[in-house]
Structure formats: structure tokens, C-alpha cells
Write a structure and sequence with these properties.
The complex is a heterodimer of chains A (about 325) and B (about 525).
Chain A: H1 4-36, H2 46-52, H3 55-68, H4 71-84, H5 92-105, H6 112-127, H7 135-159, H8 164-193, H9 202-212, H10 216-222, H11 229-238, H12 246-259, H13 264-278, H14 282-285, H15 290-313, H16 317-326
Chain B: H1 59-86, E1 90-95, E2 98-103, E3 106-114, H2 115-139, H3 144-147, H4 153-157, E4 179-186, E5 192-198, H5 205-218, H6 222-225, H7 233-244, E6 254-257, H8 266-276, E7 279-281, E8 286-288, E9 294-298, E10 301-305, E11 307-310, H9 333-338, E12 343-345, H10 356-359, H11 362-370, E13 377-378, E14 382-383, H12 387-395, E15 400-404, E16 414-415, H13 421-433, E17 438-442, E18 448-453, E19 456-465, E20 467-470, E21 475-477, E22 482-485, E23 501-508
Parallel strand pairs in B: 3-23, 5-13, 6-7, 6-11, 11-12
Antiparallel strand pairs in B: 1-2, 4-5, 4-20, 8-9, 9-10, 14-17, 15-16, 15-17, 18-19, 19-22, 20-21, 22-23
Helix pairs in contact in B: 1-5, 2-11
Classes of the chains: A mainly alpha (about 325), B alpha+beta (about 525).
């Protein structure tokens, strides 16, 4: 037996923790890449805000520094906002807290060690918050987030029964992963294809895209091509074996949905999303129409979420009971 | 020392009011021990005997602490604090209306109880819970205890804990209070008293279990030298008990019902659900349909629930019957319970027997229903509703403990000798205004136990909360219990809601030879491994 409320809690725990890890990777890689690029060639820090989708929230609070055009201040502000900014419900700290709150609710259905690891992560993030002001302290802090999330995943993988709760957790995780991958592609690509491929730093940028999704090494092993637009897009959208590729996330989601009763509607939405991704005309997309395409993918991902939400988290139970009595 | 009662006040009140010992300076000269300045004075100390030497059951521990030294002890306390924080053991305190999660305060110096003494306490607790259950069942049926004069009728009919909805109901095995968290205290002469029987939704057992787990990590070596009775079996016994009261044949569906994350004991509710492997539900997760059955809203639709370990107070359980404004409960739950289609643990109405006014009659209740003498002592208690008692209490309020009859958690308790003149006057007025709300007891000088306070080990007052389970088939008492400690010097208030701390409690068997718990024999290295023995 799995309570609807518990299913919802583990699903959101999966999403929030995945978001925390994903955002941490993106900020980490951006910092590394920023260091590699000569002054003037870098893309600044704003793209990070776009990936997380908090541009306007940021502008409300930090407009002064942005207008002054102070690069150092901009870095500090953007990073602070992404890591733990007040008013940023999508900050890494908010995601870790929300993940913890949900796991706390779901304690009876997740392994004790997983809750403890999550509680520890939250404590460590809070305890070391002061250190993120320096780049060096920030690197440590982000590593801690990534390692903490990986630890939780490892515990779940190694000790949690493959039950319904696990299915909801994995579905949450995979939908969030797929969503993050599309966001990274969306923002990166926008800043890239305006330069029509003759940018000497093109490869550096695409490498950054791959790295921020922990995809560089798998890409190298799987694809013969250099990390440029077409090959990278194909890999991150359509590869079926790399766990952060959109297609692979959908495959995982589908396999977990199949384990659940009454998942027809969600499975159908999942199939639709897979079709959208598979139908992408990748080489051409690298030059044009990527943004619209990724919007379409995001809408399809959201549809899966909505079907799950309606089916499992808030159905009208009493009617349902009457139906099963009647049948 | 008994006080002389002025103007021929009735000696029949039978209450002696000893002075609270106040001067620790004139205690014994400590023998060479771990803490040379440790001095419990005239209080009964759980570790140190009146001669300054360790009590027999605590001897090994005492010497161990002497070897360990203060710095290592402090380091282990820090390790324990870190672990409690890391595993997320918290309790919620209310500051105004906002609940704040606090790390659970755990003092690493264990409190030791000799096994032979404990086994007497154990049988006393089972005897008491048996009798209280017979009493509750009687209250809701024939009321023989009232007609025979064992308990005055106004204590039953006039009690705010009497639930007329329970009249005539027959819970499985006639058991109403399945889980009891008793408060035990030890007086100056070493006598153990039952101070309270908590029969509604007693909490603390999760902390007892977590304290032990942390203690094992903090003093792993001690568990090798000592024969300490384990506390882990509790959860299995609880699971058996819950299953044994199920109205349905086969594997019952059991849930823990919590008021929600804002409840001060939410940690415990989640802990128990997790340990039992059952769902933790809130009222809104359950629904009672026209068939009088209880269902849970699951991802597969509505599923029938057989047993509810409820951690919501009676009055919030069912807005159809009790408080209509309660959002915590489940409409129709009492209807389902009365029809026998779901078991509630503890049953509603059980609180009739843990009323502080009924408390003073418990020895008679035991004699009446069981035909036995009570094994455990009860603190003499005066009900202020009685005019003679009222006068006595008001005259001696500075030397008594005054409590509201229907509160728990230490709220509203006034310890006379430690109160200011203003507080005493205020309490006296309150009692006069509404005497039946109040009871009074002599101050029992609670025993002390060595406790780490700001780097120093000092005597602090303790009580003990064991948990007793009573099912139709068998009874079980935790081995030891949750020792609560008043962290402020001289304070007698141990409740965690009032800033108290806690200790692990070791029931130690010193009668036989220590069990062989030496290093495990070294296994021959298995193939491909470098010979780390797997224990």
C-alpha cells in the first residue's frame, strides 16, 4: 500500500534533489569554463539565470549591480542568487531543503539511510554557506552538493526495494533530468548559434554544455564526432543509453510507469514526448528552430507530470470507490 | 521528616511532607572515582552509593569513566551530539505559535538499573496496566468499581476524560490501553514510585531506541564488558500487538495516524511508522464510508485499514462525535470503531484511568480487580476538591507539588519549595477558584544521576519512562526506559518540553558471569580477501 500523499512526496523529493544536483553541476562547469575563456569572449553569468529560469526574480533584487556593469559584482550576485538567494525558490539551497522536507514526509517509505544522508547534506550546505563567497569555497560547496545527491542516489539504488515508492521517486528524478537537459541546451544554444559556427571557441562552449550534464566522457566514447552542435544535440536528445539524455530519461520513466496500475494516460503522454524527441531533425536544428523545438519537448514533459498528478496524487477517491463497487 | 499538623488537622490525610534536601556540601567524601568533586549530597544517586563508592551494577561503568578521563568524555559527548544531529533526531517546541525543531538533547552518561530490581518493576508495571484496563472496561460497562465504592462516582461521571461514546463497546480482549508510558521516580530512600500512567498517546519510545543506538556508537567497548538488556525488541512486540487486535483475518493493514508535521512528536510518529514498515497517515488520508469501514487514499484507490495506531488525542479523532472544528481527525472514525470494523490503539476513552485524581485510587483498583497487593508504590495524592485536603494544601503549598489534574507534559506543575512567594500566592488563588482542577502531592526528592553540564559532571535529577504493551495474548515492558534528566541544577522538571534532557538506561545483569563477548574468533581468510574477519 502506498498513500497518494507519500507517492507525491517521494516524487517531489526525486525532482528537487535532481534539480539541486543539476544546478550545482551547471554552476560548477560555468565557473570552470569562464576561467578558460579570454576576457571579452566569455558569455557572462546571465545565461545561468536563464537556465534556472529566474531572470526576472534576479533582476528585482540585484538590478543595481547589473546596471553598473560590474562584472565581478555580477558574478558574485548571480552565484549567490543561484546557490541560496532569497526570493529564489529554485536556488540549490531551496531545492535541497524542499527535497529534505519531502523525504521527511516520506520517511516511512524510503530507507532510513537515505533520509539521514539528505539531512546531512542539508546540514552541511547550511553550515558552510559562508564559504561560497570565494570561488574556491564555492567549488567545495558545489562538490558537496553533487556528492551528497550522488550519495543519496547510491543508497536508494543499493538499499531501496523496487517498489511503487521507488517508481515515483525515479519518475520524478527522470522528468527533472530531462527538463534540465532541455534547459541547458536551450540557453546555451541561443548564445551559440548566433555566431554561425565560425567562433574559435565554439568547441569550448559545446564542451561546457556536455560537461554541465556530466556528458563529456560518455559523448566522447559514444560519438566519433568533435563536440559540435549537431553531434552534441543528437547525443543529449536522442541517445538511449546516457542517463541524462532526454530520450533515455523518457525510457526510464516509461519503464517505471509500466510498473504502476492505471498508468495508461501517463504512458500515452510519455510516448508522445518520446516521439517528439525522436522526430527531431537534428543537424538542421543546430542552426535554426532549436528554441521552438525545445519548448515543444518541455510542454510534452509537463504533460507527463500533469497526467501523473491527476491519476495518482489527487483523484476523487470516493467516486472511484463507487465505480469499483459497481463494476 | 513528617511535619506536625496544626490544630489537629486530620492525620488521616496520610501525607508526609519531607524537606527537600538542599545542601550537597555535607554529603559523603567521594572515593577515588572518575569525578572527584561529584557529590549528590543527600539525594539518592543512581550511580554513587551513600558511601561514595559506585553502586554494584554501575561499578564497571564507574571505573571505565575514571580511565577515560574528562577530555575523552567530552569528545564522546560531542560525537553523540553530532550523530543525533546527523540522523535528524529532533523534537518540536513551541515558542508562541511557531514550532521550532530542536536537536534531541542526549546526555551520554548512562543510567544503570540492576536487572533484579528491574524485573520487579516490570511485573509491577504489567500488574498496574492489567488492573487499569479492567477498570476502564468496567467504567464503560457495569461500573462495579463505582458501586463497590472503590472509586467515587464523581471521579468517573465528572471526569473530562470520560467518553459516553465508549459505553458498551467491547474492544478485542477487553483491552483499551494497549500502550502505556509510565513515569517512574525514585525517592530519597530508594523507593520507586509510579508518578503517572500515561494511557492516551504517550510518546518517547523513539528517543529511547535512538538513544541506545547512539550509545552503542559512543561506548562500543562497554557493550562488550556489560550484559545490557537490549531495547530493540520493542518494535517487533509493538507490531505483534497491533496485528493481534485486528478485526480482520489474515494480514492486517496497519497505519500510524499523526496530527501532522507540526506536532511536537512528529519525529516519533514517522520513526515508528518507518520501523513498523507501515504507512504514516494524516486524517485527510483516511475516509470512512457508509459500510463503516475505514479506507486509506492510496495510489491504487481506496484500501481498507484494519488497525490504527493513533497518535491524535481523543477529542480530535472524529469531528462527527467530538470537536466538530477538528481538521486532524476522520469523520466517522468512532462509528467505525464502535462497529468493530477497525481497531484503535489506544482505544478512545482510555484516558479515564490516567486522570491524576484516579491515580490515588490505583492501589485499590489493583486490589479490587486482581486481588493482589500493588507491587509498585504510588505517591500520596490529595484531591483539592475535598475540603479538608484543600485546606491542608493551601496551608502547606510551599512544601508540596501542585498539579492540574488533566494536563500532561509538565504543564502547569508548581513545585512548592522552588516557587517564589508570588507564584505560591497565585497558585493558591487558582486552587481556591477551582479546587477540583487540582491535586497535590508531597515533594519527592527525585534521585540524581551524573550528567555532563558545561564540561563538568554534576548530579541532576532524573525520572524514568518505560513503555508497557498489553495485548490480548501477552504483555511486554521495555528493558529500562527513557531516562529524562532535568538539566538545570536543582530542577525537578524533566519534561523535554520544559528543557529537560535524556539518557540511555542500561538494565544490567550483574548476577551471572559476564557473557563472552570478547573479540570474535578470527576466521580464516576467504579466497581473494585479505583476512578482515566478518563478524
Amino acid at each position: 500500500m502506498l498513500l497518494a500523499r507519500m507517492a507525491e512526496a517521494v516524487y517531489w523529493a526525486g525532482r528537487h534533489l535532481e534539480r539541486a544536483e543539476g544546478t550545482a553541476r551547471i554552476v560548477q562547469v560555468h565557473t570552470d569554463t569562464h576561467v578558460d575563456l579570454p576576457v571579452g569572449e566569455d558569455v557572462g553569468w546571465e545565461p545561468l539565470l536563464a537556465i534556472v529560469g529566474v531572470h526576472s526574480e534576479f533582476a528585482e533584487r540585484y538590478s543595481a549591480a547589473a546596471e553598473a556593469g560590474d562584472a565581478a559584482a555580477a558574478e558574485e550576485d548571480v552565484v549567490e542568487f543561484l546557490l541560496h538567494g532569497e526570493g529564489n525558490a529554485s536556488s540549490i539551497m531551496s531545492a535541497v531543503s524542499a527535497g529534505r522536507e519531502n523525504l521527511r514526509t516520506a520517511r516511512p517509505v524510503v530507507p532510513r539511510e537515505a533520509w539521514e544522508a539528505c539531512n546531512n547534506l542539508w546540514l552541511a550546505c547550511s553550515d558552510h554557506m559562508d564559504e561560497v563567497k570565494s570561488r574556491q569555497g564555492r567549488v567545495q560547496w558545489l562538490r558537496r552538493v553533487i556528492a551528497g545527491c550522488q550519495r543519496i542516489n547510491g543508497i536508494l539504488l543499493g538499499t531501496m526495494s523496487r517498489d511503487e515508492a521507488m517508481s515515483f521517486l525515479s519518475i520524478g528524478q527522470n522528468l527533472e533530468r530531462a527538463d534540465l537537459t532541455t534547459r541547458v541546451l536551450d540557453v546555451r544554444s541561443e548564445s551559440l548559434h548566433s555566431q554561425h559556427g565560425d567562433d574559435p571557441y565554439d568547441v569550448v562552449h559545446w564542451m561546457a554544455v556536455l560537461r554541465s550534464l556530466a556528458a563529456y566522457q560518455p559523448f566522447r566514447r559514444a560519438m566519433p564526432a568533435r563536440p559540435q552542435g549537431g553531434a552534441t544535440l543528437r547525443f543529449l536528445l536522442q541517445d538511449d543509453r546516457f542517463p541524462r539524455a532526454v530520450s533515455a530519461c523518457l525510457t526510464e520513466t516509461r519503464s517505471h510507469l509500466k510498473e504502476l496500475a492505471r498508468s495508461e494516460a501517463a504512458l500515452e503522454a510519455c510516448a508522445t514526448a518520446s516521439m517528439v524527441v525522436a522526430s527531431a531533425a537534428v543537424p538542421r536544428l543546430a542552426l535554426d528552430g532549436l528554441e521552438e523545438f525545445l519548448d515543444e519537448v518541455q510542454v510534452a514533459l509537463d504533460a507527463i507530470h500533469l497526467r501523473i498528478d491527476e491519476t495518482y496524487f489527487r483523484p476523487s477517491f470516493v467516486d472511484w470507490h463507487a465505480q469499483s463497487e459497481a463494476s | 521528616m513528617a511535619i506536625s499538623l496544626t490544630s489537629g488537622r486530620p492525620i488521616t490525610l496520610g501525607v508526609e511532607l519531607p524537606d527537600l534536601p538542599v545542601a550537597p556540601e555535607n554529603g559523603p567524601d567521594p572515593v577515588l572515582g572518575p569525578w572527584p568533586s561529584y557529590n549528590p549530597g543527600q539525594f539518592y544517586d543512581e550511580m554513587m552509593g551513600p558511601d561514595g563508592a559506585p553502586r554494584p551494577a554501575a561499578e564497571i561503568l564507574w571505573h571505565h569513566f575514571a580511565e577515560l578521563g574528562p577530555e575523552a568524555l567530552a569528545e564522546r559527548q560531542r560525537a553523540a551530539d553530532r550523530e543525533m544531529r546527523a540522523i535528524g533526531v529532533t523534537f518540536t517546541v513551541y515558542e508562541g505559535t511557531t514550532g521550532v525543531d530542536r536537536p534531541w538533547p542526549f546526555d551520554i552518561i548512562p543510567r544503570v538499573v540492576p536487572a533484579d530490581e528491574w524485573h520487579v518493576i516490570e511485573s509491577g508495571l504489567v500488574q498496574r496496566l492489567n488492573a487499569l484496563n479492567l477498570f476502564i472496561d468496567d467504567v464503560y460497562h457495569d461500573q462495579r468499581s463505582v458501586s463497590s465504592g472503590v472509586v467515587p462516582s464523581e471521579l468517573v461521571a465528572g471526569s473530562p476524560n470520560f467518553r459516553r461514546e465508549c459505553v458498551g463497546v467491547d474492544p478485542p480482549g477487553g483491552i483499551w490501553a494497549h500502550i502505556c508510558g509510565s513515569d517512574l521516580i525514585r525517592g530519597g530512600d530508594g523507593t520507586v514510585y509510579v508518578l503517572e500512567d500515561n494511557l492516551r498517546v504517550p510518546s518517547g519510545v523513539s528517543y529511547l531506541l535512538e538513544n541506545r543506538m547512539v550509545a552503542k556508537h559512543v561506548f562500543p567497548e562497554m557493550f562488550r564488558h556489560y550484559s545490557i538488556e537490549p531495547v530493540d525488541p520493542y518494535v517487533g512486540r509493538l507490531a505483534d500487538l497491533l496485528a493481534s487486535v485486528s478485526p480482520a483475518p489474515g494480514d492486517p493493514t496497519i497505519v500510524v495516524l499523526t496530527p501532522g508535521v507540526y506536532n511536537s512528536a512528529y519525529f516519533e510518529h514517522a520513526f515508528l511508522a518507518q520501523q513498523l514498515g507501515v504507512e504514516l497517515v494524516e486524517g485527510s488520508d483516511l475516509v470512512v464510508l457508509d459500510d463503516d469501514c475505514v479506507y486509506a487514499r492510496t495510489i491504487d484507490g481506496l484500501e481498507r485499514v484494519d488497525v490504527i495506531y493513533r497518535r491524535i488525542d481523543d477529542l480530535y479523532l472524529d469531528p462527527e462525535v467530538f470537536r466538530p472544528d477538528s481538521l486532524l481527525g476522520v469523520p466517522g472514525l468512532i462509528r467505525a470503531w464502535r462497529s468493530g470494523r477497525v481497531a484503535l490503539v489506544n482505544a478512545p476513552g482510555a484516558g479515564i484511568a490516567d486522570d491524576k485524581k484516579v491515580y490515588s485510587h490505583v492501589p485499590d483498583i489493583i486490589r479490587f480487580f486482581l486481588g493482589e497487593e500493588p507491587i509498585l508504590a504510588t505517591v500520596p495524592t490529595l484531591r483539592c476538591s475535598d475540603p479538608e485536603s484543600l485546606e491542608f494544601v493551601r496551608a502547606n503549598i510551599g512544601r508540596m507539588v501542585v498539579k492540574p489534574a488533566n494536563e500532561s507534559g509538565g504543564y502547569g506543575v508548581l513545585v512548592g519549595p522552588q516557587a517564589t512567594a508570588d507564584q505560591l500566592a497565585h497558585a493558591s488563588q487558582q486552587i481556591e477558584d477551582d479546587p477540583k482542577r487540582w491535586v497535590a502531592q508531597p515533594v519527592i526528592p527525585l534521585s540524581t544521576a551524573p550528567t555532563l553540564c558545561a564540561g563538568e559532571v554534576a548530579p541532576r535529577h532524573v525520572d524514568l519512562r518505560p513503555f508497557t504493551l498489553l495485548g490480548p495474548e501477552r504483555a511486554y515492558v521495555t528493558h529500562g526506559g527513557l531516562t529524562r534528566v532535568a538539566r538545570r541544577e536543582g530542577s525537578l522538571v524533566v519534561n523535554s518540553s520544559q528543557g529537560g534532557g535524556s539518557k540511555d538506561t542500561w538494565v544490567v545483569d550483574t548476577s551471572g558471569p559476564a557473557p563472552s563477548r570478547g573479540p570474535a574468533p578470527v576466521a580464516p581468510p576467504s579466497r581473494g580477501h585479505a583476512g578482515e574477519p566478518i563478524v
